[in-house]
Amino acid sequence: MGELLVVGSVALDSVKTPFGEVDEVVGGSATFFCTAASFFTDVQLVAVVGEDFSSDHLAVLARDRVDLTGLERKPGRTFRWKGEYSYKLNEAKTLDTQLNVFETFHPVIPESYRTPSQLFLANIDPELQMLVLEQVQRPSVVALDTMNFWIEGKIAGLRRVLKEADILIINDGEAQALGDNRNLVQVARIIQSWGPKTLIIKRGEYGVVMFHGGTMFALPAFPLDQLKDPTGAGDAFAGGFMGFLASAPTPDEASLRQAVVYGSVMASFAVQSFSTDRLAAVTQEEIAQRYEAFRELTTF
Ligand code: AMP
Asked: Which residue has its alpha carbon closest to ligand 1 atom 9?
C-alpha cells in the first residue's frame, strides 16, 4: 500500500500576533501538514528549501514518520512569508511573500513516492500542484488547498487541478472569492460542480463545515482559553484530516466526519504556540483527550 504524499511550502515565517512576535521561524503549508499527519500515518514530503535552511531548521521537519527524500535543496533563499494578525484572529494580513527558490521549482517526484494512497496538494502554485498530480499513479484520494494569492493570480491553473480533486479544503473568505458568491451553501454547490465532491470550508474560530455530496457536517473550533498564533491552523487541520483518513479502511461519510474532528483537534494544538512548537510536542494521549472533549462539546 502507498502512503500519504504531500507537496507544499516549507517556509521561514515572520509573524506578529497580539500575543507575540517571531522572526524567520520554520513554517509553510507542508511543514504544519506533515507534523500533524505524522501522528496518524507515514508521510512523504515534496518541497524545496534554499541554502539558508540550516540543520536546526531541518530538525523541525525531521520526524519518525516523515520521509524527507523529496525535500530538495536549491541554490538561493528559502521561501519567506510575513504576516500579521489583529485581535480578530481569523484572517492573516500578508505583509510580504518572497517566493525565492519556489520561483524556479519544478517538483520531481522520487521513484519511491509514485504510488501514494492519498495525495495532499497543499497551498502552492496550482501549476506546481498539477505537475505533481501528473507524475503519480492516481491515488484513491486527492485533496487540495489554495489561497487568495492563487485565486487572484492563477485561476485557470487552479480550475484545472480542481477538476482532478476529490476534496477541496479552503478558508471561508477564499471559498467566497473562488465561487464569487457570499452564501457558503451556494458556493459549495458551485465548486462541487467543478470537480471536488467534498468541500471543507474552514471558518477560523467558528470551526468548519463539510459539504460531502448532498450532506453537510459542521463542527465548532475547540474553545481555548489561550491562543498564540493561528498560522498553520489550516494545514494542521488538513494534516490531521488526511492522516486519519489514510489510516481509515474507506473514506466513507463516517470516516470523513471523524477526520474533520481529528483535523480540528490538530488545528487546536497548532494555534497554541508559534511555529510547530506545541503541535510537534503533543502526545497521542492528548490527541485522544481532546477528541473526547470535542465529543462532550457537541453531544446533546
Ligand atoms: P495557514 O494554515 O493557512 O495558516 O497557512 C500558513 C502557512 O502558509 C505559513 O506557514 C506560510 O509560510 C504559508 N504560505 C503563505 N503564503 C503562501 C503562498 N503564497 N504559497 C505557499 N505557502 C504560503
From this structure: 28
Check pLDDT > 80 for residue 33: yes
Q: Check pocket membership of 27 for ligand 1, CB cut-off 6 A.
A: yes
Q: Which residue do the cell numbers 530538525 mark?
A: 59
Q: What SS3 state is found at 169?
A: strand
**In this structure, which amino acid lies at residue 292?**
E
**258 contact partners, CB below 8 Å, separation of at least 6:** 244, 248
167 grid coordinates: 476534496
Q: Say how many Å lie between the CA of residue 30 and the centre of ligand 1.
A: 9
**How far lies 294's CA from each of 104, 138, 169, 288, in Å?**
43, 34, 21, 10
Tell me the pLDDT tens digit for each residue of 55-78: 999 999 999 999 999 999 999 999
Beta bridge partners of 8: none
CATH class of 4-298: alpha beta
Q: What's CA 228's distance to the chain center, in Å? A: 19
Domain boundaries, given as residue ranges, for the chain: 4-298
Using left for φ > 0, alpha for ψ between -120 and 50, and beta otherwise, residue 86 falls in: beta
Task: Find the radius of gyration of the CA atoms of the chain.
Answer: 17
Cell 509514485 identifies what position? 114
* Per-residue pLDDT reduced to its tens digit, 14-29: 999 999 999 999 999 9
Would you say the C-alpha torsion 121, 13, 48, 78 has a positive or negative sign? positive
Stretch 267-273: mean pLDDT = 98
> Cell for 53?
535552511
